[in-house]
Specification:
95 residues, 65% helix
């Protein structure tokens, strides 16, 4: 949501400006990765990049259940995009 609502939506430029949008997106991604890194021993953090998960599969030599790393982010982004456009986080007032 932060990437769409703050970083990519031109309507938010007046509120956040050209610097705060990318900074908030980066802080959100960094905090998510950092907060999830120490949950389970051996777990390196949130796998938000499918290519990162693909690299581990190549190093391991097995691609069992690799599809979930590609399907999950794609499905999540499609659901988030639909929700963002159906129920926008901004309100337009009739003039």
């Amino acid at each position: 949501f932060v990437a769409f609502g703050v970083g990519l939506d031109p309507r938010q430029a007046l509120l956040y400006g050209p610097v705060m949008g990318p900074l908030l997106v980066g802080c959100t991604l960094g905090l998510t990765s950092f907060a999830s890194a120490g949950l389970i021993p051996g777990y390196t953090g949130a796998g938000m990049n499918p290519a990162r998960c693909f690299a581990f599969a190549v190093a391991r030599g097995g691609f069992h259940d690799q599809w979930i790393w590609w399907f999950g982010p794609l499905a999540g982004s499609l659901v988030q995009t639909a929700c963002y456009w159906i129920v926008p986080p901004y309100h337009t007032h009739a003039k």
